[in-house]
Design brief:
Elements lengths: L2 H26 L6 H7 L2 H15 E2 L2 E2 L6 H16 L2 H20 L1
Antiparallel strand pairs: 1-2
């Protein structure tokens, strides 16, 4: 493939990506969303994060496993309890990872 073609293609795709993202900012920057929409949009990051993480935690070998025999589910439960009690992000991550590794050692060993 010609290097000029590749770089032109990269530049065009970059411009298209930038234009589609910037269009929402430029076109809707002067629009005030209704209060209910603004409140609803605050939950979008949590919903997206949940949609990405939950399948990885509860799906093993193509099947849903909700029991405590699933080390990821048990570690997620530990992390959720730590997060609920302490509201400390670092402690939540560390406790969840420690629980996952200990549970995996218990299952393997």
């Amino acid at each position: 493939m010609d290097p000029l073609f590749v770089w032109t293609l990269i530049a065009l795709l970059t411009a298209i990506s930038f234009a589609t993202r910037a269009s929402f900012i430029l076109l809707f920057s002067h629009v005030t969303l209704p209060r209910i929409v603004q409140k609803g949009l605050r939950f979008v990051p949590a919903a997206v994060f949940t949609a990405l993480v939950v399948p990885d935690i509860f799906v093993r070998s193509g099947a849903i496993q909700l029991g405590l025999s699933n080390p990821k589910a048990a570690a997620a439960l530990v992390a959720a309890l730590v997060a609920w009690k302490t509201r400390n992000t670092l402690l939540t991550i560390l406790s969840g990872m420690a629980a996952l590794h200990l549970l995996r050692l218990a299952v393997i060993g």
